[in-house]
From TrEMBL, chain A:
Residues 183-210 form a coiled coil. Keywords: Coiled coil, Membrane, Transmembrane, Transmembrane helix. One of its GO terms (biological process) is intracellular protein localization. This is Protein odr-4 homolog. The keyword Transmembrane applies. The keyword Aminoacyl-tRNA synthetase does not apply. It is found in: Membrane.
UniProtKB/TrEMBL annotation, chain B:
The keyword Protease applies. Signal peptide: none annotated. The lineage of its organism: Eukaryota, Metazoa, Ecdysozoa, Arthropoda, Hexapoda. GO terms for biological process: proteolysis. GO terms for molecular function: deUFMylase activity. It comes from Callosobruchus maculatus. This is Probable Ufm1-specific protease 2. Keywords: Hydrolase, Protease, Thiol protease, Ubl conjugation pathway.
C-alpha cells in the first residue's frame, strides 16, 4: 500500500511564498506518523537560504543540529518526518545525492539518544516543490534498503483536527549506587536513573478520560459516545476539551536491580518532581499509540532537560571528582514550559533554566521554528521551581557531611560552588562583625 | 432488635473434634445485626505468635468466643457480640448474643461453606510495592508506615481484567452500560460471554470457589492543579556509604466481595485487604531482617475442606516446608484440624479452577453425578491430576494405562507436599524398573505393560512412598473390601491404582453402605484418549461412580494403596 500523507492546508505558503528568483527554501517536516497515514503539522524553515544552483553545497550539519534541537521541543507523538525543499527542479528523480545523504544522516542523528524517540517507524519523507512546474513531488526514502518510493501527498481541505491529552506525572525515584558506580560522572548516574524510570514507564497503563476502552479503540471513540448520550449540540465544546490521562503503574520488580537482602550502597541519586505532559494526536490514533506517545513524551522531556543540565555544567562538576566526593549535591535541571504558536493548535516545549523567562523562550522559538512573534510569547509555566530549603533539610539528615551544595545550572553558565559559598559566608560574617563591633 | 446467626457446619465439626475442654475465638462476617460464623481459633499455651486473624480474608473479623465443655464463662463477651457454647459430652450447641447490652439466645442455622461462598466473589489482589530504604529499624518502620499510608490514600487503584473494570478511589471505570450493575450482575454478564465462546474446553460443573485476579496499581499522575509536589524534577546526589534494602513486598491478598454489593463498594474492601496484608507482611518481615536472611516472603492461599474458609499464610522463601513444621503444627492445633495430614505445605495451596493451565486436568471428579447408595462417601483427600492415554503427544493407547495411573498417584503425592519430585515420565518409570533389576534392559523403550507391584516398586524407589498391596481373586470379591477401602480413604486419602488380569484403573473413592453391603467406586479411567475436555470426561463416564459389576467376575485384581507418612 502506498503511504498517504496529509498536510495542514495552510502549509502551502511555505512553498508558494518562494518565487523563482528567490534563493531556495529548505525546511523540516514536523508531524505525526500513524499506521497507514502521516499528518504534517508544520514546516520549520531553516534559518538559512541556499543558492539554487549549488544544492550540493548545503551545510548538512546545520540541518542535523537543527533537527535535533527541534525534536527536544516536540510533544510526544510528533516527529521530524523528513525534509521539504522548494527548488527549481525536481530533486527526487533521480534523488539528489545530497538529499539521500541528509536523509540517512537525519535518521542516525535522531536515533542517537534513545530517549528522544526522534524517529518514527517509517522512512523519511522528501517533499519537493518544483518552482518551475509548481508541482509537489513527495517520496519516501527507506534508510535500510535505500529505496525511494512514491507516496500519496495532499493538503487537507480544512484545518487538521488534533485532540489534546494531558497527564501530570509525579516522579519519585531513587537509584542506589554501588562501589563501582559511585565515582562515575553525573551523566552516567542520570542515565542509570533514566533507565530505571523507563522500566517503570513500560509498566504503566493509561486510563484516558476515565473510560474503559480497548487498546485498539481510537481517540475519536471517546467523543462519539458523548455525542450519542447528550445529543448533538455540545459536540464541539467536548471535542476541544483536553482528555485527562491517569497513569497507573503495575509494579514489576523482575529486574535484577532488586535484591532480597541487605546490601552495601555507596550513594544514591534521587529524582523527584512533577512532569507536565501534553500531547496532541490525530482522532484516528489508537489508545495503544496514545499510550506510547505519552510514555515517549515523558522520558524525552526528562532526558532533554537532563542533557541540557549536564551540558551547562563544567567538566569538573560533571565528573564529580575529588572535591565534591564527600558531599551531597542538588541538581536542578531546567523546567519544561509549553509555548503556543499562532495558528497552530499543538504546543511546543521549551526548557527554562532558573532565572530565565518568557523572553528567552521567545528567542529560541523564533529561531528554531522560523516564526516572528508579535508581542509576548504565550507560555504556560506549569511545573514550577523547587523550594530548596526542603532539600537542604532532607540532605542534611541523610548525609554525614553538613556540606550541601546546590548545582543550579543557569543560562549564563554561572555556577555556585563551594569556594563561592565560602566566600559569601566569610563576607557575611565580616559584615556582621563590622556591624556589631 | 433481633439477630440472625448462621454457623458454618465445618466450625461445629471442628468443635466436636475437641478431645478436651477448651476455649477460643470465633470469626465471622457481620451483615447489620446478622452474623455468619465461619472460623475459629482455639486458645493454646504454645501459641507461637501465630495470628489467625491476619490470615483470614477481609471482611472476616473476630466476633466472639466459644467454649467446649467449659463452663467458665469469665471471658465470654470480651471479644465480641457472640458466644457459641458447645457442650462436648452432649454435643449440644448454644449460641448467646449480646446486642445493645441485652443477652439473647438467638436461633441459629447451620449452613455449608459452599452456601457461604455462593454469596461472595473471591478476589485475589496481586502486585508488588517497593521497599527501598536504609537498612535500619527506624527507616524500615518508616517505609512500612509510608506504604500503609499510600495504600490508604487515593493513589492506589485496582484492575480486575476478568470483570473488565478499573477500580479507582473516586469511581469504578467500566463500560457505560454496566455502570449501575451489582457485582453479581456484572460477573454474570461477563460469564455468559465466556459460555458463548466456542471453545468450552475444560469448562464443566464446578463447586469449588472461583477466585478472580486483581492487579494492584499505583496512581502516579495527579491533576494539573495538584500542588503536593509543585516543582519540576530535581536530582539529589548523595555519596555516603550505607547499608540499604532495595527490595519489594510481593502482595497476594484475598478478599471476599459480597455479590450483592455495588461496584463502588469494591475499592474499600480491596484497600483494607491490602492494608491487612501489609501489616501481616511486616510481622513476618522483622524476623527475616533480624536474622539477616533473605527478605523474600511469599503469600499462599489455602482452602482445606476441613476449615471451610480460606487462609493466607506468609512463608519466608528461605524457609523450607521442613523448617516450618512446628509452625504448621501449631496452626493445625489452633484451627482444631486433623494433625495427621499436611494442609499448609506450599504444595497444598489452593489452585483456582478458572486458571487455564496446559496439561492434565485437576480433580476431574469434582462435580460428577453422585449415586444414591445411602452409604458414607469417602474420597481422595486434596488435589491430583488426571493422566490418561495419548497425553503429551505420546501414543500409549493399548499398553500405557498402568503408567498413567501411576502418574496420577504421583501427581497426588506431589500436590499434597509429600514429595518434591516431578511426576515421573514413562522413560523414568521404565528405567527405574530396570535399575532395580525388576525388568531386563530390553524393557527400556518397550511397550510392555506394568502392574500394581511395579507401580509400588516405582513409588517406593523414586518417591520413597511405600504401598500396601491388596489381592482379590475375582471382581466380585472387591465388594468385600468395602470397610478396608473406607478405612484407606479416611486414614490415607491417597488414590488407589488397581490392575491385574485386565485393565488398570484409578480408584478415587468409595461409597459403602455397611448395612446393605452395597458399594460403588469412583473410577478415573486412564484409557481415555481425547483432549482435556471435562464435559466429555464427566458425561461419558471416564470419571464417574461405578457399581461392583464394573469389575470382571473372572479376573483377579491387585490394588496398590500408597501409604503416607503421618504428620503436617
Amino acid at each position: 500500500m502506498v503511504r498517504s500523507i496529509v498536510a495542514n492546508y495552510n502549509l502551502q505558503t511555505f512553498f508558494t511564498s518562494t518565487s523563482k528568483d528567490d534563493p531556495g527554501a529548505i525546511g523540516l517536516i514536523i508531524g505525526q506518523s500513524g499506521t497507514d497515514k502521516d499528518y504534517v503539522l508544520y514546516l520549520a524553515k531553516l534559518p538559512f537560504k541556499y543558492d539554487k544552483s549549488s544544492f550540493g553545497d548545503i551545510d548538512e550539519n546545520l540541518i542535523l543540529d537543527h533537527a535535533k534541537q527541534i525534536t527536544r521541543m516536540l510533544p510526544g507523538g510528533m516527529n521530524v518526518l523528513g525534509i521539504a525543499v522548494a527548488h527549481l527542479e525536481d530533486l527526487t528523480s533521480p534523488l539528489h545525492p545530497k538529499l539521500r545523504h541528509i536523509s540517512s544522516n537525519l535518521y542516525k542523528t535522531l536515533d542517537s539518544n534513545r530517549y528522544f524517540h526522534g524517529n518514527h517507524n517509517q522512512g523519511n519523507i522528501i517533499l519537493n516543490y518544483s518552482l518551475k512546474t509548481q508541482k509537489y513531488i513527495c517520496k519516501e526514502y527507506n534508510i535500510s534498503n535505500a529505496n525511494l518510493q512514491s507516496v500519496d501527498f495532499k493538503f487537507s481541505p480544512k484545518e487538521l483536527k488534533w485532540n489534546r491529552i494531558d497527564c501530570t506525572l509525579l516522579i519519585d525515584e531513587i537509584y542506589y549506587l554501588d562501589k563501582e558506580e559511585v565515582n562515575a560522572s553525573l551523566e552516567e548516574h542520570i542515565r542509570a536513573i533514566l533507565n530505571q524510570i523507563q522500566e517503570k514507564l513500560n509498566n504503566i497503563q493509561f486510563l484516558i478520560d476515565n473510560q474503559y476502552k480497548n487498546e485498539d479503540d481510537c481517540i475519536e471513540t471517546y467523543f462519539k459516545k458523548k455525542i450519542n448520550k447528550r445529543g448533538s449540540k455540545k459536540d464541539e465544546t467536548d471535542e476541544d476539551k483536553p482528555l485527562e490521562a491517569v497513569a497507573l503503574l503495575n509494579h514489576d520488580f523482575s529486574s535484577s536491580l532488586y535484591m532480597h537482602q541487605v546490601v552495601d550502597s555507596s550513594g544514591s541519586l534521587k529524582m523527584s518532581g512533577k512532569i507536565v505532559s501534553r500531547i496532541w494526536v490525530q482522532p484516528k490514533m489508537t489508545l495503544a499509540e496514545v499510550s506510547r506517545f505519552l510514555k515517549q513524551d515523558i522520558i524525552c522531556s526528562l532526558a532533554a532537560r537532563c542533557e541540557m543540565h549536564i551540558d551547562s555544567l563544567t567538566e569538573e562538576e560533571n565528573s564529580e571528582a575529588n572535591e565534591f566526593s564527600e558531599i551531597s549535591c542538588i541538581h536542578e535541571p531546567p523546567r519544561r514550559v509549553m509555548v503556543s504558536l499562532p495558528d497552530i493548535e499543538p504546543m511546543f516545549s521549551d526548557y527554562l533554566f532558573p532565572g530565565e523567562g518568557q523572553l528567552d523562550a521567545k528567542a529560541s522559538v523564533e529561531e528554531l521554528l522560523d516564526v516572528k512573534l508579535k508581542g509576548k510569547l504565550n507560555i504556560e509555566d506549569l511545573e514550577g521551581q523547587a523550594d530548596f530549603t526542603k532539600y537542604y533539610d532532607d540532605s542534611a539528615q541523610t548525609t554525614t557531611s553538613d556540606n550541601v551544595i546546590k548545582l543550579q545550572s543557569e543560562s549564563s553558565g554561572k555556577i555556585m560552588n563551594t569556594p563561592i559559598l565560602l566566600a559569601v559566608a566569610v563576607l557575611l560574617i565580616s559584615f556582621l562583625m563590622y556591624i556589631y563591633i | 432488635m433481633s439477630c440472625h446467626v448462621k454457623i458454618c457446619g465445618t466450625v461445629l465439626q471442628r468443635l466436636t473434634y475437641a478431645d478436651k475442654p477448651c476455649v477460643g475465638r470465633i470469626y465471622g462476617i457481620y451483615d447489620n445485626t446478622n452474623v455468619t460464623i465461619i472460623g475459629l481459633e482455639r486458645k493454646i499455651a504454645t501459641d507461637k505468635n501465630l495470628n489467625i486473624f491476619a490470615s483470614l480474608p477481609v471482611p472476616i473479623e473476630s466476633c466472639g468466643t466459644f467454649t467446649v465443655d467449659n463452663n467458665d464463662a469469665s471471658n465470654k463477651f470480651e471479644l465480641g457480640k457472640f458466644h457459641v457454647f458447645c457442650n462436648f459430652t452432649t454435643k449440644e450447641i448454644v449460641v448467646e448474643s449480646k446486642l445493645e447490652n441485652k443477652l439473647n439466645e438467638p436461633p441459629y442455622e447451620i449452613i455449608s461453606d459452599a452456601e457461604v461462598f455462593a454469596r461472595y466473589l473471591m478476589v485475589q489482589v496481586k502486585g508488588a510495592v517497593p521497599l527501598r530504604c536504609e537498612a535500619s529499624k527506624s527507616s524500615i518502620q518508616e517505609s512500612f508506615q509510608k506504604l500503609k499510608n499510600q495504600i490508604l490514600s487515593e493513589n492506589v487503584a485496582f484492575r480486575i481484567s476478568q470483570l473488565s473494570i478499573y477500580v479507582l478511589h473516586s469511581k469504578v471505570i467500566c463500560d457505560a452500560e454496566r455502570e449501575n450493575m451489582t457485582i453479581k450482575q456484572l460477573y454474570e454478564s461477563l460469564n455468559d460471554n465466556v459460555h458463548d465462546e466456542p471453545n468450552r474446553k475444560k469448562k464443566g460443573k464446578s463447586v469449588t470457589p472461583t477466585i478472580l485476579d486483581a492487579d494492584l496499581l499505583q496512581k502516579l499522575s495527579v491533576g494539573e492543579a495538584d500542588i503536593s509536589l509543585n516543582h519540576s524534577p530535581v536530582c539529589v546526589l548523595n555519596k555516603s556509604n550505607k547499608k540499604i534494602i532495595n527490595t519489594y513486598c510481593k502482595i497476594n491478598s484475598l478478599a471476599m466481595i459480597p455479590f450483592d454489593a455495588q461496584l463502588s463498594d469494591i475499592f474499600k474492601i480491596l484497600q483494607i485487604a491490602i492494608l491487612k496484608y501489609i501489616v501481616h507482611y511486616e510481622e513476618k518481615f522483622w524476623p527475616c531482617f533480624m536474622e539477616n536472611t533473605s527478605l523474600e516472603i511469599d503469600g499462599y492461599h489455602f482452602y482445606p475442606p476441613e476449615s471451610g474458609h480460606f487462609l493466607t499464610l506468609l512463608y519466608p522463601a528461605v524457609k523450607s516446608d521442613q523448617d516450618l513444621v512446628t509452625e504448621r503444627l501449631s496452626l493445625h492445633q489452633l484451627l482444631m484440624m486433623n494433625e495427621n495430614f499436611p494442609m499448609f505445605r506450599r504444595a497444598n495451596q489452593f489452585i483456582s479452577n478458572n486458571i487455564e493451565v496446559d496439561g492434565p486436568l485437576l480433580n476431574p471428579h469434582v462435580g460428577v453425578r453422585t449415586v444414591d447408595n445411602g452409604g458414607n462417601q469417602c474420597l481422595v483427600r486434596g488435589n491430583y491430576k488426571y493422566y490418561h492415554y495419548c497425553q503429551n503427544g505420546m501414543d500409549d493407547s493399548g499398553w500405557g494405562c498402568a503408567y498413567r495411573s501411576l502418574q496420577t498417584l504421583a501427581s497426588w503425592l506431589k500436590l499434597q507436599g509429600y514429595v518434591d519430585r516431578e511426576v515421573p515420565t514413562f522413560h523414568e518409570i521404565q528405567k527405574c524398573l530396570v535399575d532395580i533389576k525388576d525388568k531386563p534392559s530390553t524393557f527400556l523403550g518397550s511397550r510392555q505393560w506394568i502392574g500394581s507391584t511395579e507401580v509400588s516398586f516405582v513409588l517406593d524407589t523414586l518417591l520413597g512412598i511405600t504401598c500396601k498391596i491388596l489381592y482379590v481373586s475375582s471382581g466380585t470379591e472387591i465388594s468385600q473390601k468395602g470397610p478396608e477401602l473406607v478405612d484407606h480413604f479416611k486414614n490415607q486419602g491417597s488414590p488407589i491404582m488397581i490392575g491385574g488380569g485386565v485393565l488398570a484403573h484409578t480408584i478415587l473413592g468409595v461409597d459403602y453402605n455397611p448395612e446393605t453391603g452395597s458399594i460403588y467406586f469412583l473410577i478415573l479411567d486412564p484409557h481415555y484418549t481425547g483432549s482435556e475436555d471435562l464435559h466429555t470426561i464427566q458425561s461419558k463416564g471416564w470419571c464417574g461412580w461405578k457399581p461392583v459389576s464394573f469389575w470382571q467376575k473372572d479376573s483377579y485384581y491387585n490394588l496398590c494403596l500408597p501409604q503416607v507418612p503421618r504428620g503436617v
